[in-house]
Write a structure and sequence with these properties.
Structural class: alpha+beta
Number of strands: 8
Largest sheet: 3 strands, antiparallel
Number of helices: 13
Shape: globular
């Protein structure tokens, strides 16, 4: 048998972030695959250990660009646990709005972007255009479209105005009416169904072997393992939402779950707006002195949250200095993006490789971090 080596990437081949896969093929079938992450962002953990605690707020959102706020949240939670800083009640609710908007933005990018590998190019245009409406809201709240540095240790940088709340409500109404069009365009499309139904399978035993969480796990083993449910943070224990599950994880099911979860995020944000205190502090500042000379008490902690790809966590060690002693990032897409590519992409046809990457939910900097 003769093998031919092909390169998928290092552009964005059906996933978030510059990433390359060296594929060895026999005819149209991949027989070996080697992932090559680190084409854009890399080395975050060591960079964090060489920067002041507050300097890292500008660095960490880049670990996963399409959903940057998750890093702000889990980093802030770790520092808050080490220092004992209390987060004001209203800040907990505002954080949930930011996190769920980021979740919707990522799902829209992925749901629309899946049209690229199947030649349905209206999908990416719709997904990115509607995601831009969320970025407009982020820009109004934080002054930035992508890297917000808004969730900080002790709360959030500033309150939400009444005008911003109304814009969020209007967007949720628009998107809820818009989503059935995505279903008609993509999920009911016969070509898309032929490319994803009963293909790109993720068996339950593979989930346990690799440690896959998020949609991959929930669609394969039928367990509603979602950190927002099993270990609630912020005020997720005070809102109602469903976690879709199934016992058959093909490419179609995983994409369909992103569609269903978008509805649940809309439901969560509406409840947050209704229940959130109208007044109150949103930030307990960390120190009366200079943040650049601030030291975090000695200790170690693991904090985790739910992102669109699954369980996302930071293990952090402080030696009482002005910098973290050790930071380890539990990237949610690490299992399927590294071991999964090597062990389970083989057997896939060349034209389905990008589909495999997208439906598995891979964000490159989470791997080579």
């Amino acid at each position: 048998m003769k093998e031919l080596k092909l390169y998928l990437g290092p552009n964005h081949p059906g996933m978030h972030g510059n990433f390359s896969v060296h594929m060895y093929v026999d005819g149209d079938t991949i027989v070996r695959a080697r992932p090559m992450p680190g084409m854009l962002h890399r080395g975050f953990e060591k960079l964090m250990e060489r920067r002041l605690w507050m300097n890292n707020l500008a660095l960490i959102p880049r670990i996963c660009v399409p959903e940057p706020d998750i890093n702000e949240m889990v980093y802030a939670m770790a520092i808050e646990e080490l220092t004992g800083i209390e987060v004001p009640e209203k800040a907990h609710w505002i954080r949930m709005i930011i996190l769920e908007l980021a979740r919707i933005a990522n799902h829209l990018m992925s749901l629309g972007g899946i049209g690229g590998p199947v030649g349905l190019y209206t999908g990416p245009n719709w997904g990115l255009a509607d995601r831009d409406l969320i970025l407009d809201i982020f820009e109004e709240i934080t002054g930035a479209r992508v890297y917000h540095m808004y969730i900080v240790p002790g709360g959030v940088r500033k309150d939400l105005s009444d005008e911003t709340i109304e814009k969020i409500k209007s967007f949720l109404d628009y998107l809820e009416n818009r989503l059935p069009e995505y279903e008609d365009l993509i999920l009911k499309n016969s070509l898309f169904q032929r490319r994803t139904k009963d293909k790109l399978l993720l068996p339950a035993e593979v989930v346990w072997e690799l440690g896959v969480t998020g949609i991959g796990m929930r669609s394969a083993v039928g367990e509603a393992y979602d950190i927002r449910k099993v270990d609630p943070y912020a005020r997720y224990d005070q809102v109602e939402f469903s976690v879709p599950t199934a016992n058959y994880s093909d490419g179609y099911t995983r994409v369909y779950f992103k569609y269903l979860e978008t509805y649940q995020s809309i439901k969560i944000i509406r409840q947050v707006i209704e229940k959130m205190p109208k007044k109150g502090k949103v930030w307990n500042k960390i120190s009366s002195g200079s943040a650049l000379r601030w030291r975090v008490p000695k200790g170690q902690v693991y904090t985790h949250i739910e992102c669109t790809r699954g369980e996302y966590g930071y293990y952090m060690v402080s030696e009482g200095e002005d910098k973290p002693y050790r930071v380890a990032v539990r990237g949610a897409s690490y299992p399927q993006g590294l071991l999964g590519v090597e062990k389970y992409l083989p057997g896939t046809r060349i034209e389905d490789a990008a589909l495999w990457m997208d439906t598995m939910g891979v964000c490159a900097p989470e791997i080579d971090r």
